Protein 1
Amino acid sequence: MEVYNISTIKDVAKYTGLSIATISKYINGGNVLDENKKIIQEAIEVLDYKRNEMARGLKTNKTMTIGVLLPSLENIFFTSIVSIIEGILQEKGYGTIICDFKEDKELEHTKLEFLINKHVDGIIMVSYSGEKKHIQSLIDKKIPVILLDRMIKGLDCDIVIADNLNASYQAVEELIMRKHKRIGIICGPENTYTADERRKGYIRVHEDYNVDIDEELIKNADYTVVSGYTALIDLWNMDKRPSAVLVTNYEMTIGAIMAVNDLNITIPNQLSLIGFDNIQMARIVRPPLSIVEQPMKEIGETAANLMLKRLSDDYSDFPSTYRLKTKVHIKESVSTNI
C-alpha cells in the first residue's frame, strides 16, 4: 500500500522556524516581512502544503466557494460570462460550483437549495422563475446574491445586465434609417425580462419614428435554435413579407440563418438580417452578418468584482444596478430598402 504524507501548517512552521500565527497570516493574505514571505513560499512548495479549506471554513464560516446558477450551459452568452467570472474569482482564491437548471423553474429552486446546503459564500445567478422569496431570505442572511441578465420585480438585489431595451432600439433604428418599414423581430418567451425589454425597444423605436407596427411581425420564440428556425420561416411565409429581421439571441440567430439557407433567401437583396451576440460567427457567415454585441466581458468582470466587494462586507452602494451598453455592428447583411 502506498502511503501519502500530508503536510500541515505545523510542518511549514517547523521548516521555516516561524510561528504558526505568521504562517497563517501569510496564507490568508495578511502582511508579513518580505524575507518571511520567501521562506514560507519555499516551504509550501517543498512540502507540497495544501490549505485545508474545509477546516478553514469551520473556523472562519467561509468555504471560499461561489455558487453560479444558470438556466442553460448550452447558451454561449451565459458560458462566456461564467468563464470570465470564474477567472477573476480564482485569482482571489475562490472556487465556483456551477449549476444548470435547464430552464426548469422547479429545478432552479432545487439547485439553489443545493448551493445553500453547500454553504457557498455567495451566489451569482440568472433567475428563470422570477421567484424572490428564496433570494430575499439569502440577502436577509447577508449572503451576497448577484443577479445577471434578468431583474426580479420588487426585489432589492444587486444586478448586472445589458441594456436590452436600447439593444433592440438601436438595431431597429439602423434598419429604419435605411428605409425599412416592415421589420420582423424574433423575440424570446413572453414574460421573460430580456425578451420583454427587447420587445419594448422594438415598439418604442417604431413609435419614435412614426412607423406602423404589424403585430404579425413580432414572433415570440424560446431562445433555441429550432424556435429561431421556425420563426424565420413563419415570417418569410407571410403574405406581406418583412424586408428586414432582427433576431434577439445567439441560438435563435443560428436557427434563422439555417432557415435562410434552406429557403434560398438572398441576403441582403431579399432580406436584411441582424443577429445577436457572436462576433466570430458574424465573420464566418457570407455575407458578413450584422450583430448586436452584448458586453459579455464587462458583465462578467462587473459581477465578479461586485461579489468580491460584498464578500468584503462593503454594502455602501447596495443595491446596485449596472445596465451595460451594447453595440450594433452593421455589416453587409443589411442594405438600404428601395
Protein 2
Amino acid sequence: MDGDTLYSIGDLARRTGLTVKAIRFYADRGIVPPTDRSPAGYRRYGIDAVARLDLVRTLRDLGLDLSTIRKVLDREVSLPEVAAAHAEALAVQIRTLRLRRAVLTAVARRGSTPEEMDLMHKLAKLSEDERRRLIDDFLDTAFGGLDPAAGFAGIRSSMTPELPDSPETEQVEAWVELAELSQDPDFRASVRRMAEHHAAERSHGDATTLRRDSAAMVRDEVGPALAAGIDPASPEADAVVAAVMAQYAQVFDRPDDAELRRRLLTRLEAANDPRWERYLRLLAVINGWLAPESLALVYAWFIPALRARIPR
C-alpha cells in the first residue's frame, strides 16, 4: 500500500485482519470515513484508514466505547487523557470484582446461608469511612472508659485494620471475617475483659516503668518445657511455674502467693480465647503484616499447670 492509492473494504480487511462487516460498521458510524467512492459507489479508503482501524481495534480490545474512540480519532480528547480515565475506571471495576470474588469464595468455603451471604456482601462493600466507624465502635466497646494511662491508644492503633485501596482477594476475605467477628457480642465482652485485666495490671505499682507482658513471660518459660516434652502435671513443671511467678511477683512487687497466682490465671484465661488469636491473624492479613506467633499451645500447657499449683 502507498500513500496515493485508494483501497476497497476488502483490501482493508486483508490488511487489518478485521472483517468487512466490522469495517463497514465503523465506517457507518463515522469512525473510519471513506476517502472517496468508486464510479459504482463503492467506498475507497486511503492509507491512513489502516492506522485508524489498528487504533480502533486496540482501543476496543481495551474496553473503550465507540463514542470515546471517535473523540480520540477526531482529536477532541487526547489519548493519554482517555487512557488515564479508563485506567481509573478499570481500577474501580477490579476492586468491585475482587470484593465479589471474596464474598463468593467465602460463601462457598463456609457453606453460608443466604442471610450470611447478604451480610458478607454488605460488609465487603463498606466505604473506608464506614469501615472505620464499624471498627471504632468495636474498639470503643473494648476500651471505652478505661484508664488512658494504661496505653490503650497504642493498643487501639495496633488493632485497627487498614484495608488497602486495591486489596488482594485474601485481604477482602479477612476483612469480612474480621468485621463479622468484631460485631459478635460475646467476643466484644471477651476483649473487654482482657482490656480490664490489662488496666488492672497497669494500675498496680509504678505504671511508668516498662513491663514485660505476662504472656511474654509465660511464653519464654514454657517454650523450653514444651520442647522438652514436660507434662504440665509432672513435678518437673513446678520449676517452670515458679520461674514465671517469680518474674510476675517482681513486676508487681508482691509475694508469690495464692492471690497473685489467681490474678495471673484469670488474666491468661481471658487471653486464651481462640477468637482473639483469629482476630490478630486476620488483622495481619489485612494490614500486610507478618502472622503473629500463636500462644495456643503455651496457654494450653501453662494454664492447667498454674491452676494445679494454686494453694487452696
